[in-house]
Structures
1.
Amino acid sequence: MKYNSEIINKKLKKFINLSNSLATTHPAIVVICFHDFFRNLYISDPYIKKRFSKDPYKNILLVLNNCISLLGYGKNLGSYLTNKKKIFKEKKISTSELYGSLWQDRYDNNVLNSSNEFKKFLKRSKINLRNFKDKVILDLGCGSGRFSSELASFKAKKVYGVDSSVYGLQIAKKFAKEKKVNNLEFKHASVLNLPFKNEKFDYVFCKGVLHHTKNLKKGLEEFYRVMKKKGGGYLYLYGSGGIFWNSRKMMRKVMKKIPYKKAFDTLKILEMPAHRTIFLDSWYVEIEKHVSQKYLENWFKKKKLKFVKYKNPLSIELEYAQNYKFFKQIYGDGELRYFITKP
């Protein structure tokens, strides 16, 4: 099967336009369709037992057809939301409130602990836990503190978790207390203006944070500034291009018409597990920036940083499909995960 950009773009446009027209009158149907489309954008999903097609491109086309049909039927269904102003009454959720809600849901459902997941990630990346022993480490944008606590448990000298969300830090402190971690300190501060001197940290861990800030370039500079010479770090940013990333942008515009709680409750009716928050994350975050692989690697070179791109991805990670013939068209630059060394 040949990739046809005209066909997929036409279907995607129809899907988004239909969703937009139903967002204020039939929000639950839009959320259900967006959820199904979103999870089928991934090369693999542990909760999808059988896809329409094993080929990612063909599968996306068939899912779009399915969702378009459902939305078409939805137009003929009755709705109590005849007053469009009614649905706009809920105030816009801030990034801090959004992640606070998602972390609280994970905490309440006992799925915040990422110990096994994190250790397996380091093992796949061939990073020995002994590398963190007696080191001063920064979790840059620590959120719920789940990785801060793990890094501290690797016999680090001291770990600092920094985040601008009061909600996240409250959960982070409770979680660290439960894990009985003592070599860990949390600070309420912006990742764009860190309260630390130059070259303080042996290791800087930053996972999925800087692309949600107002100034990604400043965030990268802070990441570099506080890292010691001969130190290292990990950085994860969203890539750019392709149906995957472009669809997220389109869906986010439509979801502005649907209150966060309504979407959250709809997904819970579908029995969505607490750790499956990627959908709400992308739909409601205030800022989501996308970086090209070329730009990021040029920045590394400009700073004379040594860098290695993450290998051995899981089947649910985009890079698992890096040899797929239409990878660039579907996934663009993929996900940008790098291990850094500062000479």
2.
Amino acid sequence: MYRNQVLLRLSIPLVFMSPEQISIILASVGLCLGVLICFILLLANKSQVHANRLLTVTVFGLCLAMLQAILIYTGDLLKVPHFFRIPSPFFYLSLATGYLYVRSILNDETKYKKFDLVHFLPAFLHVVELMPFYLKSATEKRAVIDQMLHDPAQFIQLNEGLLPPYAHNLIRALIGLAYVIAMTRLMIRTAKEGNSTLINTATFNWLKWFIALMGAVVVSIMIILLMPEQGRFNRTLEVNVAAVICFVILNFYLFFRPQILYGIPRIRLETVSETNGQPENLSQPPFKEGKLHSSIGGEEEEEMDATCLDYLLAYKPVLEEYLNSKKPYLEQGYNVARLSYDTGIPQHHLSALLNKVYGVRFNDFINQYRIKYITEHFDKDGWRQMTLEGIASEVGFNSRTTFFNAIKKSTGLSPSEYISQIRKAKGDVE
């Protein structure tokens, strides 16, 4: 009973709010979250740089739409007349970059294709069309804005350019629908490749949400523009509310999936075989398979959320392919920050991958690769005559003590016993 009373009291302010006031609140939330997302994508996320920039442009364009909605319904647009119609070309731009973002993730693209500039042509032409209005004085722009504030439905007519009223919004809706169809076809084509691991990843699920929300905005706007005005709502308000709601949902989805926001993994990298790239020592497997847990402190942790698990596993082939091909562990002092930078995997994701998937600390993980390298390369010229200190230095260990501890922890043998066992395994018994 008490809970119902509390919910009733909380809902009372919303009941007495006008649609414009609700739109202002939602747009303000969307604007704040959107700006934060742009900063994270540009500054904190160092993986998939090309895709991140495309998503940043998309989100930034939507942020401008949120800001314009706030300025319209608060009447503050008169204070910043030169901002009027600035967001309009970005609506075209956001559609294009949204499509290119999805394509870049699905196809693992790191740069633009030859004819991708065509996607930016509508935005450029719209800027050219609006240039006479942009060059007007603040007084002239205030006169136009003041007239529209008395009839907010005129804001989406966009009759300051060459095309007739509502033309641009219908064109944008049609272009947006074409892009949504194109993105959907890309997703279907990827799903038909038959890679169940790929289509069940957090990355693929995020793209489905992204396309669905863009589709919802486009379809809603198209329906609103084609239907006659009804009741007290006008087309401008309806279009703004539809865009604001979808944008807020998109932002909250990203914040509830920080692993996507802070570093989306490559979705199309060839999977490395389970045995390839994993060091094998002579006594026991260094990496635990099966149920994921952390061996830190010797206590198993609870199983991870399925989405987070899929996300971490997507990094696994990226990490192993880099270690196998570049062998950075042979460098003394190589640390987790360097590995994060070299692979593009955010450091906190890399630490989680090592702890949760492999069940080891970074130093133990790297030392296993060093030990494997000794096993595989011991018959190289000069290695048989090396001292233990020389071998340790050759594979990246900083000292004899570190080398001794790593061998003992991994194999249960002393370095001399370990080397002797390698000699026997290679038929070199002295």
3.
Amino acid sequence: MGCSMFRIEKCRDKAVYSAKLDKPRRLDLKRIAAKFKTIQDTPIVLVVEVDGVEVIVHRHGELLFKNCNDMEKLRKIAEKIYGA
């Protein structure tokens, strides 16, 4: 999945970065959970660890990255998750 398929921006109301798909779609949380280290699994939200970064994956396609400001690393992680 190319970089033009999503955008990463700093959340205004939270001290985290988020990734959003340009064309929203539902993510298969079970498939994502099978590919990454899962910290928490609920029907609508999944928390995974990818390359040392905790990521909150919303079923509607939004990703929230905790404790990372490296935009290139965030972009690579988003590509991995969206490609899962």
